[in-house]
Amino acid sequence: MKNESVAIFDIRSYELTFLIGGRGVNGTFVFRGSESDFYDGYGADGFFDVSSFSSAATRVFNAVLSSYEGTMRKLYIAVPAPFIKVRTKGQTLSFPKRRKITEAEIDVLFSSGLNELTENGRYVGCSAMYFSVGDNRRYFSRSDVLATKTALLQGALCYYFVNENFYALTQKLFLSMGFTEIEYIPQSLAMATYLLPAKTREGYAVILDVGDAASVLLVAYGGGIVHQETFSCGVGQISAALMQEFGVDFDKACEILAAADVSGGFVKKDVMWTDRD
User: Fold this and answer.
1) Highest CATH level, class, for 83-162
2) CB count, 10 Å around CB of 266?
3) What is the mean pLDDT of residues 143-154?
4) Do 158 and 87 touch, CB atoms closer than 8 A?
5) What average pLDDT does the segment 80-91 reach?
6) Can you give the pLDDT at residue 126?
7) What is the chain's percent helix, strand, coil content, to nearest 5?
8) Cβ atoms < 10 Å from Cβ of 22
9) b/e per residue, 184-203, with b = 16+ CB within 10 A?
């Protein structure tokens, strides 16, 4: 079972989490070790304090790895929106005659699109919003378009580029811990594909992810991200506004916020303010 374990590092706007997990019974995911810690955080322009990030990351990794009986070589990092750019591109691949689409043709479609892009940042992956074969039908996964016979393969493609400073920082930090391979996963893409059913993503879907110090607005479509934008406003700023508006302390403001109905309702009636005149 140890060989099936994966190491995941999740970076939130004020908290870092490192976990080791693996496949459990009935398709479940079992945590075999996890640790979280706070740090100075990040905003729309990046980390507020790089040393705070590095120190907190080292603490959570040491806490988990010290009690894990095994060796982890590959690390998956969930990259927040401020540190990753998304480039979208329509790409067409034509053939002299009809042929059956295989993985090879899809790989060529992606690589030809990448070769035409100029972007500052480290390329870390790609995905497709959808594929088409010239008949106006849209295929929202690679498996759907495989084996289709066509002389024309098209795709609405997404390419992901990690900020070079972020890349250099994480490479230096985690390779020194013994990891030999690091894979960067766009946090927005992971969130969209996990939270939204595939059928929902056959149309444009919007997610607002409110963090502690920064929030992200993203638009998902199919298997890709159409657009994402980070702004430096989160739970901390909202809580401060509630403190000012209602004259309550920080803990009470957080309680009000936690009780809010995000579907558009109001604070639950059972929330009582006992410290107000």
Assistant:
1) alpha beta
2) 8
3) 94
4) yes
5) 96
6) 97
7) 30, 40, 30
8) 15
9) bbbbbbebbbeeeeeeebee
* Rounded Cα distance, 190 and 60, in Å: 22
Scanning the chain, the segments in alpha helix (DSSP H) are 50-65, 103-115, 142-145, 164-175, 187-195, 235-246, 250-259
Domain boundaries for CATH 3.30.420.40 within the chain: 2-82+164-186
Closest by Cα among 100, 97, 94, 91 to 130? 91
**Structure confidence by residue, pLDDT tens digits, 151-183:** 999 999 999 999 999 999 999 999 999 999 999
Lowest-confidence segment of 24-28, 146-150, 153-157 by average pLDDT: 24-28
Which token pair is 122? 């480290």
CATH 3.30.1490.110, the chain: domain bounds: 83-162
Full 3-state SS string of 106-164: HHHHHHHHHHCCCCCCEEEEEEEEEEECCCCCCECCHHHHCCCEEEEEEEEEEEEEECH
The span from the CA of 103 to the CA of 232, in Å, is 41
Residues with Cβ < 8 Å from 210, sequence gap 6 or more?
234, 235, 238
> Domain 2-82+164-186 belongs to what topology?
Nucleotidyltransferase; domain 5 (3.30.420)
pLDDT tens digits along 227-267: 999 988 878 788 888 888 888 888 888 787 777 655 544 44
